[in-house]
Amino acid sequence: MFALYQSLASMRDVNTWGESLRHGGAERRRILILERLFRDGHVAVHALSEEFAVAEMTIRRDLKQLADEGELELVHGGARLLAGRQPPAGFSRRTHSNSLAKKRVAEAVKTIVPRDGVVGVDAGTTAHACAVEFAPEFTGCVISHSVPVLASMLEWPEIRVIGVGGDLLHENQAMVGPGAVAALRELRIDVLVLGASAVNEDGLYVHSSVELATKRAMIDAAGEVILATDATKANASGAVRVCGLERVSRIATDREWEPGIADKIAAAGVSFVLA
């Protein structure tokens, strides 16, 4: 069974929904700004202001936040890609990067994910690998905003699948934004398989704020959060904090972490699981 879920309020009027996609809140604007930046290499404040029907000062705040996160460089009248910055690698390419570590993480997740109940799966290549690994023996419900995860679940028609709707973030092939957040507020997840770009004793981080609200909504909907990440993410760089370690019960990973960071994480009450 496959269902696409959005909040009823957001779908009352098709025309209104279309306008909301175009002129919605800050998170949606930043998603679209980044897509235009990667497409054209530069963006202009005045043009973005007209496109999104907001004040130029609002666009300047959006660009300032994206610049603070290392996504772009501010220039007179707009912004451009940082020197040497390339559009993010496609999902398929990232799937094959560090694939052995992802496989080991997925095997570790499989040992602790329940065989039924409601399991949420985050976006990203590692979370996708986890879903594909545990699906053959799973009989419950999967909730995800990840397009690749939802597509993979078509191989197992006995699994109930709820797809969370929203704005498509091409970089991560995931639905994000206010629509996704609103839908997740009406759902309940037993166990969430979460991904992150970096982990340290202060918490979990991602590279950009465009996926932040959706990740936090998934965490808020979950009874338990399992972080699925390989050891290279320990003390790696991440501009935006998602949550503290108090929201994570276990870290499913590929190998033992360096004692310094591992001890600090363990002291926070988080246990490590290896396949």
Automatic annotation (TrEMBL):
**Which InterPro entries does UniProt cross-reference here?**
Carb_Metab_HTH_regulators, DeoR-like_C, DeoR_HTH, NagB/RpiA_transferase-like, Tscrpt_reg_HTH_DeoR_CS, WH_DNA-bd_sf
What does the record give under GO molecular function? DNA binding; DNA-binding transcription factor activity
Q: Which SUPFAM superfamilies match?
A: NagB/RpiA/CoA transferase-like, Winged helix' DNA-binding domain
Q: Outline the extent of the HTH deoR-type domain.
A: 26-81
Q: What is this protein called?
A: DeoR family transcriptional regulator
- Pfam family of the protein (one): HTH_DeoR
Which keywords describe this protein according to UniProt? DNA-binding, Transcription, Transcription regulation
In which domain of life is the source organism classified? Answer: Bacteria
Species of the source: Paramicrobacterium agarici
